[in-house]
Amino acid sequence: MRDRILIVLALLLGGGSVLLLAAGGSRAFTAFGWSERDLLLWDAVLSCLFFVQHSGMVRKPFRAWLARSINHDYHGALYSIVSGITLTLVVVLWQRSGIMLWAAEGIVRAALLGCTLLALALFVWSALSIQSFDILGIAPLRARLLGRQFEHGPFEVRGPYRWVRHPLYTGVILVLWANPVLTADRLLFNVLWSAWVIGATFLEERDLVREFGERYTEYQRHVPMLVPFRRPWPPAL
Prior knowledge:
mainly alpha
């Protein structure tokens, strides 16, 4: 029963918060009536709260501490649940700025929409390229319910991972900057969250090198991190 409850909560809170962000990214859920300076400062604090939680919980020291009292199989689902709660708070409490910086029209707006669709296609392609894709961390719990031993898939390079090492993050940055309407709070969001994605990517790279060793360092030598500018590697599959 506990495993099923955690799976449902991870789906509702983890997955639901991402859908809430996508659906409510341009509307205000709350308005505190603050000055532009104060509401932008508040938005920055909300962003930092999510960054600390999201990146802190995946760091090795925290996972080692958590493993002292909680079975490792539950870590992924708990991470999704806590991240979902934090992201929901960010979306609901985010303050919208009345300062309009730019609004795309015509062909530029259509081009930005095309970039968004391209990013969504990249998300789907990336997910399909990972045999053990488990963004909500529920695969170990599903294995437990089926009476199986969960095992991580081998390190393989396929799909968009032949062009960039982190295509999902590339897609996130593309979506951030493809929004046709740019207000002061949206610019703040784009800058802070892009910087966090890039910083988190470097931290994740360190973990991947520790996990896969020379196999991953060779991958780093041949494939760019976020921006594709080389021929795909391996050259033929």
